[in-house]
Amino acid sequence: MTVTSPNSSFAPWPDRLRRSAIILIATALGLAASVVFGGLTLPQAGLIFIVIAGAALVPWHLHQSVPTSEDMIGARPAETPVVQALVGGMPDAAVLLDRAGRVLHFNTAAGQLAPALRKNELALFALRSPEIIAALREAIATRQPQRASYVDHVPIDRWMELIVTPLSLPTAFGGSEYCILMTFHDQTPLRRVEEMRADFVANASHELRTPLAALSGFIDTLQGPAREDPKARERFLGIMHTQATRMARLIDDLLSLSRVELSAHVRPEKLVDVVPLVHQVIDGLEPLASERQVAIEIELPPAPVLIAGDTEELLRVFENLIENGLKYGASGGRVMVSLTEPVPDDATGEVRFAVRDFGPGIPPEHLPRLTERFYRVDAGDSRAQGGTGLGLSLVRHILIRHRGRLLIESVFGHGATFTACFPATKSAMTAAKE
């Protein structure tokens, strides 16, 4: 079914008569005056009226002389809402530019990747990486697709691949509009998987060599000289169980560390109340505290303390820090666990979880390297305590993912304090100011 507009040549005649009424009335009055005062005959006046009426009723305006907004959009297809919706719906960061390199559209992912992007401004002002600038200039000059790889170091290292694709969009009048589509593919997960695989093989082979050698030796002994010795068998089986437990924990820590590193560029957004998490960890470590004869002193706020984080990873942070205090600061007889919210005078605006022990402390030369993988102040004591050398490294990487930081303070001979600092949520900052 064809719908005709009122301006078409098939519009109803009553509509045209209504629109031409003023012209026809004025013509009739003028002709009547001419007949009465000017000597014009009635047949002549009637003929003139018919001619003017016909001219008024014929649709002379077959084409519009002033271009409408639809015409303008047809001439610039890249400006249409459809193109904007397509760019906005792309899963990767995407930016559409005109032939001069000015931004036409960009999606949310691109805005997060380059916050300086502005519509109708040159993309080179917001994308300052030399690799991006070179690829974009080459694509504009040659109108050929370009690829470039670069590393974005802010806020953390991210490996990105840029694809610059020249496009030619047909216009409504048979022409074409030249545009440039930039898409950014995040290669960080792939790179981290490769690093994870290499690190896991290197670290696991190094750290597992000792317990595997011990297990192999005890098995040979149990199959040989100690075959008929019940006391030796019980002793060796106990040692083997300890070594097997250590290997299992080592593998668990390595996998946890690799998973955290793999998602380090993705900041958690779920709000978590950390007060019950700290209580949960302390309840789980009570047997260890009783075994080491260490009292756990708690200083937690009564109200909820919310931070943006991953529940399982936060539990791992609290558990590692408190467990370290119970193991390596046991000689002090007590461990203080505290959680503080931001105060109005605190410029950092951080939620701080602190564990202080009163043990032997840490020599100052070791402090800068404590969060390195497998670094131990006393390797023998660490292995005797069941440590893997990965706990603080795991804590540091979890805090990096949460955009936090780890503070270590120690005076040799007077204990140590480990503080995990998390960015406060907006609601917590508002409550602190009030």
UniProtKB/TrEMBL annotation:
Spell out the CDD domains in the cross-references. Answer: HisKA, PAS
EC number(s): the record gives 2.7.13.3
Q: Which Gene3D superfamilies does the UniProt record give?
A: 1.10.287.130, Histidine kinase-like ATPase, C-terminal domain, PAS domain
Catalytically driven reaction(s):
ATP + protein L-histidine = ADP + protein N-phospho-L-histidine
Which residues are listed as membrane-spanning? Answer: 20-38
State any GO CC term.
Answer: plasma membrane
GO biological process entries:
cellular response to phosphate starvation
GO terms for MF? ATP binding; phosphoprotein phosphatase activity; phosphorelay sensor kinase activity
The UniProt keywords, alphabetically, are: ATP-binding, Cell membrane, Kinase, Membrane, Nucleotide-binding, Phosphoprotein, Transferase, Transmembrane, Transmembrane helix, Two-component regulatory system
Annotated ranges, domain Histidine kinase: 203-426
Its localization reads: Cell membrane
Q: Pfam families in the record, alphabetically?
A: HATPase_c, HisKA
Q: What class of enzyme is it?
A: transferase
Record-given protein name: histidine kinase
